C-alpha cells in the first residue's frame, strides 16, 4: 500500500487495515513538499481529542488510533502551517451492544490524553479507556497477559496462538497500536505472564521447560533482533521445590508460579514473583545465585530463613500472600500487588485462613535493608476497602513517582447469589457469577482516578495511544526464534486399527498453521484418548487428557471452554519431517481422520 495520487483533501482511508485493531485506521496521501502532518481524532469533548504529529515526509502512511466504537468519527488531517481536512471514519459497535465500563471517575486535567489499557484475563479482550470512560482502543483477538510500550513506541504483548492449555502462548508480538505486527518472537517453551525490556532492547521473558514435569519456573533473555535465547534461568537451580513453603494454591507441578520479572540495574539482579510460595525472590543476573526472599517465613527451612529472609521492623507491617507484579522503585524499595489470597501460608490454613468475604487485596511497598536484613512497610492502599477490592488472582501496581501509584484490582468476582466468590474469577461466569475490575491511581494518598470495568483484566497500564516516535513501517513482519518439540507420551497404547473414520460425535477438526497444528475434539470425561501421527513405521503419540483437574491458578481464562469435554491439542512441527496420517486412539480402537499433515 502506498500514498499513490491521494492528497490531504482526498486521502485513502483504510479502516482496521490489519483486522485486529477495530478502533483504528490508516490514512495515505502525498504532499508536494516534505512536511510534518498532525492527525487528530476529534473527541466527543475537546478534552478527549487524541493527536499526534508525524515526521516530515512527502508520502504519508499514517496510523489513526483513538477512534470511538459505534460512532461516526471525525478525524482532522493538518499539514504543518498548511492545508487541513476533516474526514469521517464510521466505526461499528465492536462491543456488541455492551458497555465495558460501569464508570470512570477522574478529570481530563489529570488523565489528559492518556488511556488506561487493560489486558485479558477472561472473555473480555484488550481495551483502553479515556478520562470519560470511553473505549478508544481495542483488540478483537485474545493477545494475552501484560501489554507494555517498548522504547521504540511499539507495543509488546503475548500472541493469540495457544501453545498449551491453559494459557501458555507461542511467544510475543511486537505490534503497532493499529495492529501491524512487526515481529513475532517464538519460544521453545512458550510465553506466559510477563516480559521486561532491557536497556539494550533485549527481552526478559517468562517461559516454561515443556520437557519438564513442572511449569512457570523458567526465564529467558532473548535477542531483540534474532529471537535467539541468550541466557536461561531455571528456578530449580536456586530453590528446591521439595523444601519451599507452600501458598494456599500450591501444587507439585506449579510449585513456583512466576507471574512477574523485573531487572534492577543498580544491583544487576532479577526479581521474580512466586505466587505459590507467597514470595518475591531476587537472584544475581550473572550467576543466578539467590540474594534474598521477601515473604512470610512460616514453613521454610530454618537455614533458608536465617540466610535469605528479612526481619520486619516498624509498625503496621503485614506480609503479602499470592502476590503479583513486583516492581523495584528507583530507591530500591519493592512494590507488589498483594492479593492476600487466604491471608496465610498453607501450613496455617486451619487457623488463619480468611474467607473471601472477610479478606482484602492491596498495593504495598516495602523498604528493605540488605545489610541488616530488615524490612519495613512504608505504604499500602486497598486494605481499608475490604472485600469489594479483593482479587484472589492476577492484578498489578505501577510506580510513577514518589507518592504516585496505580493499584489495579482486576480479579474481583461475585457468585450467582451476589456474594464475594471463593472461586477464581476465570471460573465464576461458568457458575453463574459476575466479574469486575477496579483500577485506582493514587497521588499522595488521594484517589485521582477510579475505573470500574465489567469483567476481569490481568493488568492495567497507563499510556498514550501514540508512542513518542510513532511511525508505521510497511513491509512483511519477521518471525524470530522457533517453537520447541512437542512432548510425546512415552507409553504406547495398544489399539486395533481397521481404517474406520473417527465418528462425527467427537466433532474433530484440524486447524493448521505454518509451524504447528491444533486438533480440536470433544470426548467424554475419563476416556483414554491419544492423538497419533504416523508415517510408515514412524509414529508419534500425544496424550489427550480427559480427566477433570482442579485448577488452583488461572491467571488467564481466555481459552477455557464452557463445556469441559472440549479438548485442544497443539503439536509443533519442529522435529517432524514429511507427510503424516493423523489418527486418534479412543479406548482400544484406533480411528483414521482422513487428514494428512505435511511438516
- Which topology of the largest domain does CATH recognise? Neuraminidase
Q: In terms of structural class, how would the helical and strand content be classed? A: mainly beta
Q: What is the annotated CATH architecture of the largest domain?
A: 6 Propeller
What is the gyration radius calculated from CA atoms?
Answer: 25 Å
Distance between the termini: 32 Å
The helix fraction, in percent, is under 10%
Which CATH class of the largest domain? Mainly Beta
Low-pLDDT runs of 5+ residues are none
Describe the structure in brief.
By secondary structure, the chain is an all-beta fold.
List the helices and strands and how they pair.
Elements: E1 12-15, E2 24-41, E3 50-65, E4 71-79, E5 84-91, E6 101-105, H1 108-111, E7 114-120, E8 127-129, E9 135-138, E10 148-149, E11 155-158, E12 162-164, E13 168-175, E14 181-191, E15 195-197, E16 203-207, E17 218-222, E18 229-234, E19 258-264, E20 269-274, E21 279-284, E22 290-294, H2 302-308, E23 311-313, E24 324-328, E25 334-338, H3 349-352, E26 362-369, E27 374-381, E28 396-401, E29 404-414, E30 434-443, E31 446-454, E32 457-464, E33 478-481, E34 496-501, E35 509-512, E36 516-522, E37 529-535, E38 538-544, E39 566-572, E40 579-586, E41 589-598
Parallel strand pairs: 14-33, 23-27, 34-41
Antiparallel strand pairs: 1-2, 2-3, 2-4, 4-5, 6-31, 7-8, 7-32, 8-9, 10-11, 11-13, 12-13, 13-14, 15-16, 16-17, 17-18, 19-20, 20-21, 21-22, 24-25, 25-26, 26-27, 28-29, 29-30, 30-31, 35-36, 36-39, 37-38, 37-40, 40-41
Amino acid at each position: 500500500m502506498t500514498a499513490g495520487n491521494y492528497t490531504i483533501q482526498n486521502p485513502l482511508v483504510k479502516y482496521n487495515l490489519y483486522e485486529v485493531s477495530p478502533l483504528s485506521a490508516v490514512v495515505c496521501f502525498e504532499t508536494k513538499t516534505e512536511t510534518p502532518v498532525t492527525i487528530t481524532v476529534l473527541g466527543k469533548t475537546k478534552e478527549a481529542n487524541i493527536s499526534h504529529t508525524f515526521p516530515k515526509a512527502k508520502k504519508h502512511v499514517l496510523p489513526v488510533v483513538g477512534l470511538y466504537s459505534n460512532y461516526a468519527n471525525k478525524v482532522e488531517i493538518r499539514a504543518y502551517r498548511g492545508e487541513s481536512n476533516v474526514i469521517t471514519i464510521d466505526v461499528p459497535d465492536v462491543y456488541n451492544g455492551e458497555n465495558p465500563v460501569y464508570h470512570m471517575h477522574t478529570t481530563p486535567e489529570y488523565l489528559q490524553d492518556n488511556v488506561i489499557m487493560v489486558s485479558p484475563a477472561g472473555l473480555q479482550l484488550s481495551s483502553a479507556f479515556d478520562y470519560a470512560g470511553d473505549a478508544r482502543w481495542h483488540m478483537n483477538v485474545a493477545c494475552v497477559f501484560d501489554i507494555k510500550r517498548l522504547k521504540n513506541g511499539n507495543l509488546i504483548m503475548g500472541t493469540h496462538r495457544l501453545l498449551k492449555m491453559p494459557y501458555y502462548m507461542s511467544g510475543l508480538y511486537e505490534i503497532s497500536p493499529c495492529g501491524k505486527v512487526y515481529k513475532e518472537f517464538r519460544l521453545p517453551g512458550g510465553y506466559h505472564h510477563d516480559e521486561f525490556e532491557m536497556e539494550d532492547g533485549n527481552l526478559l521473558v517468562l517461559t516454561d521447560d515443556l520437557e519438564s514435569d513442572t511449569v512457570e519456573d523458567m526465564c529467558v533473555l532473548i535477542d531483540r533482533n534474532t529471537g535467539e535465547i541468550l541466557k536461561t534461568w531455571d528456578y530449580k537451580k536456586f530453590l528446591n521445590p521439595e523444601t519451599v513453603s507452600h501458598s494456599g494454591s500450591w501444587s507439585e507441578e506449579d510449585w513456583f508460579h512466576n507471574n512477574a520479572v523485573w531487572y534492577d540495574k543498580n544491583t544487576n539482579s532479577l526479581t521474580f514473583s512466586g505466587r505459590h510460595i507467597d514470595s518475591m525472590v531476587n537472584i544475581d543476573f550473572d550467576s543466578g545465585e539467590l540474594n534474598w526472599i521477601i515473604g512470610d517465613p512460616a514453613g521454610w527451612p530454618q537455614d533458608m530463613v536465617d540466610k535469605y529472609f528479612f526481619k520486619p521492623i516498624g509498625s503496621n507491617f503485614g506480609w503479602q500472600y499470592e502476590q503479583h507484579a513486583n516492581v523495584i522503585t528507583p530507591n530500591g524499595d519493592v512494590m507488589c500487588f498483594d492479593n492476600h489470597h487466604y491471608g496465610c501460608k498453607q501450613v496455617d490454613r486451619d487457623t488463619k485462613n480468611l474467607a473471601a468475604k472477610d479478606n482484602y487485596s492491596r498495593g504495598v511497598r516495602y523498604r528493605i535493608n540488605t545489610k541488616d536484613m530488615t524490612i519495613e512497610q512504608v505504604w499500602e492502599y486497598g486494605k481499608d476497602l475490604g472485600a469489594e477490592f479483593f482479587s484472589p488472582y492476577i492484578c498489578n501496581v505501577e510506580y510513577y513517582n514518589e507518592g504516585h501509584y496505580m493499584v489495579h484490582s482486576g480479579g474481583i468476582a461475585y457468585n450467582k447469589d451476589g456474594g464475594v466468590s471463593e472461586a477464581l474469577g476465570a471460573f465464576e461466569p461458568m457458575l453463574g457469577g459476575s466479574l469486575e475490575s477496579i483500577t485506582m491511581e493514587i497521588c499522595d494518598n488521594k484517589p485521582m482516578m477510579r475505573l470500574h470495568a465489567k469483567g476481569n483484566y490481568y493488568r492495567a497500564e497507563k499510556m498514550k495511544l501514540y508512542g513518542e516516535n510513532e511511525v508505521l513501517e510497511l513491509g512483511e513482519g519477521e518471525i524470530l526464534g522457533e517453537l520447541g518439540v512437542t512432548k510425546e507420551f512415552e507409553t504406547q497404547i495398544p489399539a486395533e486399527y481397521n481404517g474406520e473414520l473417527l465418528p462425527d460425535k467427537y466433532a474433530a477438526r484440524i486447524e493448521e498453521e505454518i509451524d504447528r497444528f491444533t486438533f480440536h475434539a470433544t470426548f467424554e470425561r475419563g476416556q483414554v484418548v491419544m492423538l497419533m501421527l504416523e508415517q510408515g513405521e514412524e509414529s508419534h503419540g500425544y496424550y489427550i487428557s480427559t480427566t477433570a483437574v482442579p485448577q488452583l491458578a488461572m491467571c488467564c481464562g481466555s481459552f477455557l471452554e464452557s463445556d469441559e469435554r472440549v479438548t485442544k491439542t497443539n503439536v509443533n512441527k519442529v522435529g517432524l519431517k514429511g507427510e503424516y496420517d493423523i489418527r486418534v486412539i479412543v479406548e482400544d480402537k484406533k480411528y483414521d481422520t482422513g487428514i494428512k499433515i505435511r511438516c
